Amino acid sequence: MIMDDSGRIREGVYFKPVQTNFATMDSLLLLGDTLHFFQMTVSREGKTVSSDGLTTLYNRLGVTDRRYKHLQFYFVVPPDAFKSFTLSRGKGSWPPDSSTQSDAARTSLCVMEGYVLK
Asked: If DSSP states are collapsed to H, E and C, what string results for the chain?
């Protein structure tokens, strides 16, 4: 179960959706007051960021009303694509409208280099 008795995402547990086509993110982790979302990619062309997509994800997971102080979204990119990887604006545009998409508007986006452990 992803939620604890208070309706918050359980802390310190790395969650990965059962569905392989779960939209927007591949996994999440709550540490302290920060909710971390991860999207792994092998794309060399970059990814499109959609405030509509983030808002839909947050509504689906109940991540609303500042229940979590910080929201971090990481794009994890392989080393050979890291230097050329870019983020572009998608449907719903970026940055989001803070009056209608307040949780998406307070999300920090990060690109990080990921390695495969052997």
From this structure: CCECCCCCECECCEECCCCCCCCCCCEEEEECCEEEEEEECCCCCCEEECHHHHHHHHHHHCCCCCCCCEEEEEEEECHHHHCCCCEEECCCCCCCCCCCCHHHHCEEEEEEECCCCC
